[in-house]
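Supplementary Text 2. Reproducibility record for the structural model of the 350-residue chain.

All settings were left at their defaults, and a single model was retained for analysis rather than an ensemble. We include the record here because the model underlies the residue-level annotations in Supplementary Table 4.
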Amino acid sequence: MKLILPQKVVEAAQEREFDLQGYVFEAAPEQLRTPRIVRVGLIQNKIILPTDAPVLNQITALHKRVSEIVEVAAFCGVNIVCFQEAWTMPFAFCTREKEPWTEFAESAEDGFTTRFCQELAKKYNMVVVSPILERDEIHGGTLWNTAVVVSNTGQFLGKSRKNHIPRVGDFNESTYYMEGNTGHRVFQTQFGRIAVNICYGRHHPLNWFMYSINGAEIIFNPSATVGAVSEPMWSVEARNAAIANHCFTCAINRVGTEYFKNEFTSGNGKKAHHEFGHFYGSSYVAAPDGSRSPGLSRTHDGLLVAEIDLNLNRQTADKWNFKMTGRYDMYADELTKATQNDFKPNIIKE
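Retained model, structure tokens:
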């Protein structure tokens, strides 16, 4: 169902030239629980400046653009907003070059971008999920692909690192950072329990599952993915995860085609090129009952506002009982055996 937004909000989005959509996910009335209404905001955007512009100028331009959209999200009553993967920079991990891309890395706890998000959070009473390229100075300046979570009070709540790193086509991310070491953290916020399954992790059902097992009611999936690689799967993966895990999922993807000055190859025998495809946006929200919103634009910046009733999670779980019937002890035992060097597949032969 469409969410009716004030005309001034619609006009603000038009003036700022981004796609604005709103939807409602309702739950059935209950006798003992009041509705748990939360509004989430998903932001997708292009980079602003050319990829060879000065690093600080690129970051600052993106801060300015996203702050314009966040202001409209606040007008819409958004409680939790999530940005796209590595939102402060071009998705340059296709190039395999270290400079200048590693210069975009910041401290998760007190970096330039985290301080920017803290100001937004305090100003608008909004939880902010900010996926960045993190530099961990405590551990030798190691880089990580990390989502920072800032409370609506403006306090740094914590961080969650990307669990699964792709080695697919031009996604050469292990040149820069490896698999995360923060496990499946869930963040208790004033508006509900949230988790962040970054990009490639959406292809791994157990990744979604473990966030759910740890109590996530909303799982965000900030991404940067291109049409030739993943678009046929995009519309179903987060939706499937919402169904399987009795929770809401929010899939976010950047938009645009990013051009890099130096050519790079894909290791597939084809000619070198300056870009690796179109980021197709299409951000959406999915509910545990199998419903989902339409996606945002494939080509334009956008804000998707979803008003969700978290009571729907338990209502759906009571109907389908996936966790009750999950037989997790059986799978835990079999997976433990399967990870041993002396594992023998359970195949019956004549």
